[in-house]
Design a protein that fits this description.
This protein is an alpha/beta fold. It is built from twelve helices and ten strands. Strands 7-6-5-8-9-10 form a six-stranded parallel sheet, with helices on both faces. A four-stranded parallel sheet has the order 1-2-3-4, covered by helices on one side. Helix 2 crosses helix 3 and helix 6 crosses helix 7.
Length: about 325
């Protein structure tokens, strides 16, 4: 392969050959580590890391058991997120078709539920403080929005312009209605509103009715992730809104019992599209969402807006916020 990189006359890109060479080299180096430390179990979760493919190449020959767990609300199969591990822990049966396609995928699936602990963190004092601050500013209806990371390149699903479009939408709502407040819980710390040069966003910030919840980590291993739990932002809100594509934060808000909306502006089809179509949860346009927000923010009437009660069990068979404990038990009981 190394020779072909420089003298390749076949219709194979040198970049692809180099990536294959790096993967095999990684597997070779990993072999020495596995043998030296006597490793018999290999557990991972970020399946797009090259090391997770490298271990699969050598695991059978070296007698290593490989296991992984679902950590994000994957909506459809993508090669980078799929794994051929021996065992794979998933939120629910709904995600089997996401992580296995045409017989490519894990050997065995295990139901685990949502892996992040969203209920044991006592945020009540912070939530109370947020609500009181909004109340002092005349706010009687609060929206929380989980703005996702900005992707770059031709394979990106939502980029900077996508985020600006939605943030401008919420900014206009704030400017039109002085009774509405907005909480932003970005996925990444660098996605602060202040980075955007947009007149509507700037004017909305000046009202004082926008709160950004950001908590940085001193560790480089968190990859600039915002350490604020989505469930905290949701608990301080009347309604939470997230992006349907990879909407893990929105799913956590719903699992915590909060009214939650999913924006599917690209009208993608997901494993849950059919049964979710019967609920007042998915919105394909900002105009339609605006109508519903206006309606619910000015009324005390009961509504099914953002209500997941009828369908939430499809996403997590346990609903007990103990997925992390089941992962720990699984690691201790999996066969060597």
């Amino acid at each position: 392969i190394f020779i072909k990189i420089f003298f390749n006359k076949e219709n194979i890109s040198r970049y692809l050959l180099f990536e294959i060479y790096k993967l095999l080299d990684h597997a070779n180096l990993l072999t020495y580590a596995v043998k030296f430390f006597g490793i018999k179990k290999f557990f991972f979760y970020k399946t797009y890391f090259p090391i997770t493919d490298a271990i699969q190449i050598i695991s059978r020959e070296l007698g290593v058991s490989t296991s992984a767990f679902q950590y994000t609300d994957m909506n459809f199969a993508t090669p980078l997120m799929m794994s051929s591990s021996d065992n794979f822990l998933i939120f629910s049966d709904l995600y089997k078709e996401v992580f296995k396609k045409n017989n490519i995928g894990p050997n065995k699936f295990f139901l685990n539920g949502y892996p992040h602990d969203y209920s044991s963190h006592d945020n009540s004092s912070d939530v109370k403080k947020i609500k009181n601050n909004f109340k002092k500013k005349g706010v009687n209806f609060t929206i929380s929005f989980f703005n996702e990371s900005e992707q770059i390149g031709k394979w990106s699903h939502h980029d900077k312009n996508f985020n600006i479009k939605i943030l401008e939408f919420f900014s206009k709502i704030i400017l039109e209605n002085n009774k509405i407040g907005l909480i932003l819980k970005p996925q990444k710390n660098r996605l602060s509103l202040k980075k955007y040069n947009n007149k509507f966003i700037t004017q909305a910030l000046e009202t004082g009715r926008i709160l950004e919840l950001i908590k940085k980590s001193s560790s480089k291993h968190f990859h600039n992730l915002n350490l604020i739990y989505p469930s905290m932002a949701a608990s301080a809100s009347d309604i939470s809104i997230g992006i349907a594509f990879g909407g893990t934060a929105a799913l956590e808000a719903a699992l915590a019992g909060n009214r939650t909306i999913l924006l599917n502006l690209t009208k993608d089809y997901y494993p849950w599209s059919n049964f979710m179509a019967e609920e007042n949860i998915i919105f394909n346009s900002l105009e339609t969402l605006k109508i519903e927000i206006d309606k619910i923010s000015n009324s005390d009437l009961e509504t099914n807006f953002g209500d997941w009660n009828r369908i939430i069990d499809n996403f997590d068979n346990f609903r007990d916020s103990k997925g992390h404990e089941r992962i720990h038990s699984f690691i201790n009981t999996v066969k060597k």
